[in-house]
Amino acid sequence: MRESRDFESSCPEAIEIGAYILGALEPAEQDAFEHHLRRCPRCQRNLEQLQRSVEVVASAVERRQAPPELKRRIMAAVEAERSPKPLPRRAPRRLTTPVSVGFAGAFAALAVALFLAFGGGLSKESLTIRGSARRGATGATTYAAVVAPQLHGATVLVERAGERAYLVGYNLPAPPPGKVYELWVAGASGQPLPAGLFRPGEGGVTRATIERPLAGVTKVMVTVEPQGGTLRPTSSPIVIAAI
Amino acid sequence: MRFRLQLPTRKAERLRRLADEELMELVGSRRDPDAFGVVLERHADAAYSLAYRILGNQESAEDVLQEAFLALWRHGSYDHSKGSVRTWILSIVHHRAVDTLRRKGARPTHAVDADEVLRNRPAKERTEETVASRESTARLRSALELLPEEQRQVVELAYFGGFTHAEIAALSDLPIGTVKGRMRLALQKLRDELEEEVW
Question: How confident is the model at residue A104 (pLDDT cuts 50, 70, 90)?
C-alpha cells in the first residue's frame, strides 16, 4: 500500500474526522464537530473524501442474504403507508369530526357498525386511520387496519395471498396478564368466527396466521380474551380490517 | 429464494435501469413504493450483512433493517452530502445497529484486552477468516486486511463493536489522540486503496 496522500490537517479539529465517520465520538463531541464542520470548508472536503472509505469497512463482512420474508414485511408496511395519490405524505390523522368521503369514511362507518354490533368499546372519535388496502409489490394484498387507542400507536396490517392471510402487527403491546389476543373473521352475516390466538412477537413485530378460509370474509378483527381464547368474543374489537 | 418485485414488466424494467439517486428522487417526490422496492432489493443484503455482523443474530438484525428501511421510506429524502445512496443506507443501518448494541449493554464496561473483545464479539467474522462469498466482498475485506493491525483493530472496535474512541483508548491502554489518529489514518489508507482500483 502506498503512502497515504497528504491530508489537509492544518485544521486542529481534523483529528476528529476518523472517529466522527466511524461513529466513535461521544454525543456531545459529535455535536461539537458537526458545528465545526458547518464553518470549516477544509474539514468538509476531508469528510467528503473519506466518507466512501467507511463503505469499505461496512461491506467487508460476510455476505448474507436478507430473508425474503423480511423484505416482504417491509414492502407490506410501505404499501400500506403509501398515500392514495402521488402527493407528499400525510401523517395518520385522528378523526375528531365525521368523515364523509373516501376510504377513511368507509373505515369510520365500518367502525361504527362494529361498535354497534359488539355493543361498545371503540368509538368513532377515538379511532386512528392508518391507511388503506393496497395490492402489494410482492403480489399479496395488504389491508391497513383501524386500531384502538389502547394499542399505543401500533400499526396493524392484514396480508392476503390467495386464500392464506396473516395479521402483521408492529409495536403491539403485550395483552394484560392472563389474556391473549384472539383473531376473528366475519362475513356478510356479521357473526364473528374465531380464527386463532396470538401474542406479540419479539422485537416489536408480530405475525399471526389467520386460521380460517377467507372465502366470504369481509372483516378481520382482534379482541382481547382470556388465556385459551373463546368461541364468541367477550370484549369489543381493538383491531378492525375490512377485507 | 430471492425477493423479486412483481411489477408490471415495463415499469419494473424502467425502474431497474435507474440509478439509486433517481429512484430516491421518485421515493421522495412521488412516494413511489415500486422505486423504493428496487432500492430495497439492491441494498438489503449488504445492509442485513452489516447489521448481522454488528448484532450477531438474525432477529436483532431483522429488527434493525426493518426500522432503518421504514425510516428511509417515511422520512428519507436522500441527502447527497451523506455520500452515495448505498453509503447513506449503510450509515443509517450502522447507527441503528450500534444504538441497539449500546442499549442492550452488550459491550464490556470494564477494561479488558482489546484482542479479547474482538475475539468475543457476537458473530465474529474476523477479516482473516475465509468466508467471503463474493469477489467484491473479498476485495473489500482484502483492503481492510491491508491496514496495519493497530489501525484495523481500532476501526473494527469502533465500527462493528460500537465503542467510542475513549472506550477504545481505555481498552487498548493508548492515549485518546493516538486512537483518533489511527482511525483517521486507516480511513485515508482505505480511500487511497479505493482510488487505486477501478470500482
Answer: very low
